[in-house]
C-alpha cells in the first residue's frame, strides 16, 4: 500500500541513483597508520578523544595533547604551543 502522506516519489530503476534520496551519514572505518608523526586537524571544538585513546592503548612512549585537541584557539596559539613543546622534547 502506498504511503498516503507521500505526495510524490520518483519511479527509477534500481541501477539509477536517486539524486533526491536522503544521503547516508558518515561510515566509520578503522585505519592503521605506520608513521612517526600524526597531526589531526578536524574542526573548531576541542576533542581530546584520539589523545585519550592513544594514551589508553599506549601507542607511543611520549604522547602530547596540544593545539585544538587541548583547547580551541587560533593558528598562532597552536604554532606557539607546538614550538614550545618541540624545544622541550
Automatic annotation (TrEMBL):
InterPro entries: FAD/NAD-bd_sf. This is Uncharacterized protein. It comes from bioreactor metagenome.
Amino acid at each position: 500500500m502506498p504511503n498516503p502522506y507521500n505526495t510524490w516519489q520518483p519511479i527509477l530503476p534500481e541501477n539509477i541513483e536517486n539524486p533526491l534520496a536522503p544521503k547516508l551519514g558518515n561510515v566509520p572505518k578503522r585505519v592503521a597508520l605506520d608513521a612517526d608523526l600524526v597531526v589531526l586537524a578536524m574542526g573548531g571544538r576541542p576533542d581530546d578523544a584520539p589523545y585519550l585513546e592513544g594514551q589508553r592503548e599506549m601507542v607511543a612512549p611520549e604522547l602530547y595533547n596540544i593545539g585544538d585537541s587541548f583547547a580551541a584557539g587560533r593558528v598562532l596559539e597552536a604554532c606557539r604551543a607546538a614550538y614550545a613543546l618541540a624545544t622541550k622534547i
